[in-house]
Backbone:
């Protein structure tokens, strides 16, 4: 599962990517310095993993990860191929969620492609390009479906109705994710199209140091503009976050954050938010060899969670032994949890909860 960072050129995307992944994507003060999408695999910060390490003292600890893709800056006309647009839009289509970076700081030394800072205009520029690209895909599909619908094919008629609804919305400047459709219709007709504006989105306001804690006038405008989108708005001083990641010493980092009035790097919060945006959660396995965080989709069953470790675990699933994280932390060990009668045995229908510590029994 991948989250793609998008935005206009020079809003801080590559600096953010560098700071998240500690990779060094070229970051320069001109458009299109990121041509190929950079991909970074980022550890998901999770204090529960640290606690389990203290309790179990394993040989190794493996955190959950999330894949972040840095996509080059889009410009007006990208949907028509302007500024390498088609390539970039193709890269976005391959991601599962979008982190939309908006410039919310003034700095005369960093040029803005449109001459001045206006995050709402910037957001609309990107939205329109993504919507136009989706409209192109919907129109293409409509051509094929209309022919089948004319023959009286009931499925085709239903699909045509859905596509016309999407077309109307996109032409009116509404993203697909905001169109009201039943889950069944989405699954059958919308999901296969991989529409860009159907992907979940989070807005990241890139601010100056002074605005890192409580935001600024630009952030207020963004919050107002997206209030009906059911999207998270995060505030991050991306340049400063990048400086923090350069510090090797943990105490120095802590001091730097304290000076800014922050308890943890904003990037840590962003990674966790991206993880949730991708509809993912964590369960743990804990033993002396290894304490590990595993990633599953929210709503996964116990056999599906077992399958993340190995397909044989899912095929031959018998049952799962489950301990809630809080219970494990309270009693301090698996044996004490068992003595207290707090270990649960769950079957194939069990829906995994975030933070479950699981042990699978299977037979192949």
Residues:
């Amino acid at each position: 599962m991948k989250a793609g960072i998008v935005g206009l050129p020079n809003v801080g995307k590559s600096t953010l990517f560098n700071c998240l992944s500690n990779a060094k994507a070229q970051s320069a003060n001109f458009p299109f310095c990121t041509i190929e999408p950079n991909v970074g695999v980022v550890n998901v910060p999770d204090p529960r993993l640290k606690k389990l390490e203290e309790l179990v003292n394993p040989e190794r600890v493996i955190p959950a990860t999330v894949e972040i893709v840095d996509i080059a800056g889009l410009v007006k006309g990208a949907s028509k191929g302007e500024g390498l647009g088609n390539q970039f839009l193709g890269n976005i289509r391959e991601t599962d969620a979008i982190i939309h970076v908006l410039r919310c700081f003034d700095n005369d030394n960093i040029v803005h492609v449109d001459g001045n800072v206006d995050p709402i205009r910037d957001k609309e520029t990107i939205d329109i390009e993504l919507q136009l690209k989706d409209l192109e895909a919907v129109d293409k599909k409509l051509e094929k479906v209309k022919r089948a619908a004319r023959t009286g094919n009931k499925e085709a008629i239903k699909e045509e109705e859905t596509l016309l609804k999407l077309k109307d919305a996109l032409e009116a400047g509404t993203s697909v994710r905001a169109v009201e459709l039943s889950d069944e219709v989405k699954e059958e007709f919308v999901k296969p199209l991989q529409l860009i504006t159907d992907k979940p989105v989070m807005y990241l306001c890139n601010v100056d140091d002074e605005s890192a804690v409580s935001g600024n006038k630009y952030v207020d405008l963004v919050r107002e503009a997206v209030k009906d989108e059911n999207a998270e708005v995060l505030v991050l001083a991306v340049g400063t976050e990048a400086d923090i990641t350069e510090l090797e010493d943990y105490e120095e980092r802590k001091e730097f954050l304290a000076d800014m009035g922050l308890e943890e790097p904003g990037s840590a919060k962003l990674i966790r938010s991206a993880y949730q945006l991708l509809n993912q959660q964590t369960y743990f396995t804990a033993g002396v060899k290894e304490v590990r965080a595993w990633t599953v989709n929210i709503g996964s069953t116990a056999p599906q969670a077992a399958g993340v470790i190995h397909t044989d675990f899912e095929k031959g699933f018998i049952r799962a032994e489950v301990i809630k994280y809080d219970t494990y932390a309270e009693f301090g060990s698996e044996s004490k949890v068992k003595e207290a009668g707090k270990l649960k045995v769950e079957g194939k229908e069990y829906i995994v909860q975030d933070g479950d510590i699981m042990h699978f029994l299977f037979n192949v």
In short: The first helix runs from residue 13 to 21.
